[in-house]
Design brief:
The chain crosses the membrane at residues 45-64, 76-94, 100-121, 133-155, 161-183, 204-231, 251-270, 282-299, 369-389. This protein is mostly helical. The chain is built from 17 helices and no strands.
């Protein structure tokens, strides 16, 4: 594979994985305007974000077996088509309840990009290259928060928030063309994969019974839910507490996204010297420490606008290290059930994100504490799961109950 084609395929896969982040980030600056236009409150509009995350969680579970049974492209076309129709529905809505419903359907369609992109990495690239590829895809994903909120802010101010969803539908239509003409087919359809509920559940049970998958999916999923606490609470914190404009919020969001871009590039070089397991451990330790400092700072009113942004920047650098490495380690044991494994991993990540986002909204108290508190919880919880999981595997291995536990050792 030529370097040019290699880079182009990664760009397409990254774009697919970016559908949901872009769909989330682009409309965040419009929260106050949407709330005013729909005669509701910001915390009710935040539920449209929660419903989107719930849709991603449930949708990925459905797409896993479909991607294994019908191959990668047919489910992609179906899901992205649903996304486009739901985006138009979001643009035409006149009540917050219908917006919440349309966002759920939009997520059910768009989440196919997350599952398919991860499965295609395993299809196309050798195992020793996957962590590097996931890092490059994460780089593409990390660029979207630098663009989406800024674009969203200007579109909301210059036109109306309805146009945000029309633009999203247009972007996905271009992606569909790229998939058709340029994306490799990946794994061929496997008619032996049954879609009967009992068989599907059996496939998922096979996946979760693999210790390496379970540990890194649970730990990585909770750790990577931290940005959802930030995403859910940041518009209220910066725009209502610190009184920044929609455009300024877009620039702040973009600056903080740069934290993930830099660490993603750092991960590329760290992988040449260290194992993914080592990188994950160190990252979760330092994020837990920074999270505790954030809690103490908000509680004691240590932070102004700029110092809070600086601390958030430091915390978010860890996301570019945790996500790619836990993804690579979670999927490494699988060949036949890659689609199902990708679906479970993505579903747990987005499910954790939905729960964390909902908690931030529920705990809303006109301070930054719900946001930073849940960010810290995610990192500390991920670290605890990692240690307890590996300790359990080591104990089972010492009793001869686990044949291959080397890859999950710290």
């Amino acid at each position: 594979m030529s370097r040019k084609r290699y880079s182009f395929i990664i760009l397409i896969l990254g774009s697919l994985a970016t559908i949901s982040p872009f769909s989330i980030d682009m409309y965040l600056p419009g929260f106050p305007t949407i709330a005013k236009d729909l005669h509701t409150t910001i915390d009710k509009v935040q539920l449209s974000l929660t419903s989107y995350l719930v849709g991603i969680c449930l949708g990925q579970i459905l797409y896993g077996p479909l991607l294994d049974r019908f191959g990668r492209k047919i489910p992609l076309y179906v899901g992205l088509g649903l996304y486009m129709l739901a985006s138009i529905g979001c643009a035409m809505t006149s009540t917050v309840d219908s917006l919440i419903l349309m966002r759920f359907l939009q997520a059910m369609g768009g989440c196919v990009g997350l599952v398919a992109s991860q499965a295609l990495v395993s299809d196309i690239f050798p195992s020793n290259k996957r962590a590097e590829v996931f890092s490059m895809i994460t780089l593409v994903i990390a660029v979207s928060p630098m663009i989406a909120p800024t674009v969203g802010g200007y579109v909301t101010m210059g036109f109306s928030w309805h146009w945000l969803f029309i633009i999203l539908a247009g972007i996905v239509s271009i992606m569909i063309a790229g998939i058709y003409f340029f994306l490799p087919t990946g794994q061929m359809p496997d008619r032996s994969v049954s879609l009967k509920p009992k068989s599907v559940m059996g496939s998922y049970f096979t996946v979760i019974s693999q210790p390496q998958f379970l540990i890194y999916t649970l730990a990585g999923g909770l750790a990577t839910a931290a940005p959802f606490a930030y995403i859910s609470g940041s518009s209220d914190v910066f725009m209502n507490i610190y009184k920044v404009s929609a455009q300024q919020y877009g620039w702040i969001f973009g600056l903080l996204a740069f934290a993930m871009i830099g660490s993603t590039q750092l991960n590329h070089f760290l992988l040449k010297k260290y194992k993914s397991q080592e990188i994950i451990k160190i990252t979760l330790v330092y994020q837990s420490i920074v999270g505790i400092v954030l809690i103490a700072g908000v509680y004691n009113n240590w932070f102004g606008l700029y110092s809070l942004i600086a601390m958030m920047f430091i915390f978010l650098t860890g996301q570019g290290l945790t996500g790619p490495n836990t993804s690579a380690l979670s999927l490494a044991p699988f060949k036949k059930h890659t689609g199902s494994a990708s679906a479970l991993m993505g579903s747990w990540r987005m499910g954790a994100g939905a729960i964390i986002s909902g908690i931030v909204s529920f705990l809303h108290n006109n301070t930054a504490m719900p946001m930073v508190g849940m960010m810290a919880f995610c990192s500390i919880g991920g670290l605890v799961i990692l240690y307890l999981g590996n300790a359990t595997v080591l104990q089972r291995a010492s009793r001869g109950e686990v044949e291959d536990s080397v890859s999950v050792l710290l």
